[in-house]
Amino acid sequence: MICHLRMTSPCKILKCNSEFLAATSGSHPPGTEEAPEFCTALRAYAHCTRRTARTCRGDLAYHSAVHGIDDLMVQHNCSKDGPTSQPRLRTLPPGDSQERSDSPEICHYEKSFHKHSATPNYTHCGLFGDPHLRTFTDSFQTCKVQGAWPLIDNNYLNVQVTNTPVLPGSTATATSKLTIIFKSFQECVDQKVYQAEMDELPAAFADGSKNGGDKHGANSLKITEKVSGQHIEIQAKYIGTTIVVRQVGRYLTFAVRMPEEVVNAVEDRDNQGLYLCLRGCPLNQQIDFQTFRSAQATEGRTRRKGPSLPASPEAFTYETATAKCREKLPVEDLYFQSCVFDLLTTGDVNFMLAAYYAFEDVKVLHSNKDKLHLYERTRDLAPGNAAPSGRPRALPALWAALLCLSWCWSVSL
């Protein structure tokens, strides 16, 4: 299970400890025939502690390890002089996907669960388009959220997005910048920062590295470029997390798969600030795009009314927008409806692709295949409302009328 974060320190005693444990794991107290191998591992352990002595002077774990080595040397009649070959490393089970067999178990989230423990529950959050947010609780919202906003903020990583207007003076915004901070974690990874902006989707962290740094489990954090300049994937195995970042047209999309335990790993959840993937967008930042869609379909408007949302450069009618979105999104769920909304408000066909790729990421990252499609507005409903069939459920007539009245009132202001 995941432990609390340890303060970043140049002292590498945890690396020495894990190497010694790897070399001797699974063995009972050594008998006479095993003593030479055990003594070799002890000497390697002592050599490792000497290398990090200068940076570990004030570390209690370091001093404990040094005294422990001396005691074990005496107990097993080990000479301080002799071979110090590299420690024997634990072999992983056949078919294991971990790339480095010397990475500590704590650096592989799923392996840190005992065999009798329940499989961890995974959740998904995504942000795409103008922008549309799917939270960890499967609430689907369309938001304004102009400027910088936190998507994720827990004990292990922070994710912040910056949204800018798609058109001058418009409340239609899209993600133009993304910053991800992976916090230093035990012997697994150093702190790493990933930044992406419009027309710049790097396949490396800000320091030029592609993994978690110099720590023993560095490869438990890794960046892979899927399509140059368009699609990267970050695997953070030590927290069981997968992040997908894309550039579609000028703007960025974000998708993550994360264990519930990591999602909820915050110091004080009740007093925590806004965290969009967990709490959703504030009500005053949400847009009821389904009401707008209904009005477009009914009245045949080709441009969005109101001074805050100017006409799009390319005029889509409701009919042409739905036809275009149906090319990539044949099921008329909220991803389809958000595609139509974005084409009507921006006139940019790249927003259709953003919705398409967002749903493709959901298919890969969401652990509950029955909740891939969402059909109902979830701002005022319980999270995770999904219709059982491939078509959206009809809203009651009274509710539809109220939505229409609400939209008409808003545009008259």
TrEMBL record:
Cell compartment(s), UniProt: Cell membrane
Keywords on record = Autocatalytic cleavage, Cell membrane, Glycoprotein, GPI-anchor, Lipoprotein, Membrane, Signal
Q: InterPro entries, alphabetically?
A: RGM, RGM_C, RGM_N
Q: Where is this region: Disordered?
A: 80-103
All residue ranges annotated as the Repulsive guidance molecule N-terminal domain in the record: 11-80
Question: Biological process (GO) annotations?
Answer: BMP signaling pathway; positive regulation of macromolecule metabolic process; regulation of primary metabolic process
Q: What is its main location?
A: membrane
Ranges where the Repulsive guidance molecule C-terminal domain occurs:
121-366
One cellular component GO annotation, for this chain's record? side of membrane
- Report how it sits in the membrane: Lipid-anchor; GPI-anchor
| GO molecular function per UniProt | coreceptor activity
Which residue windows are coiled coil? none
For this chain, the family text in UniProt reads:
Belongs to the repulsive guidance molecule (RGM) family.
Q: What is this protein called?
A: Repulsive guidance molecule BMP co-receptor a
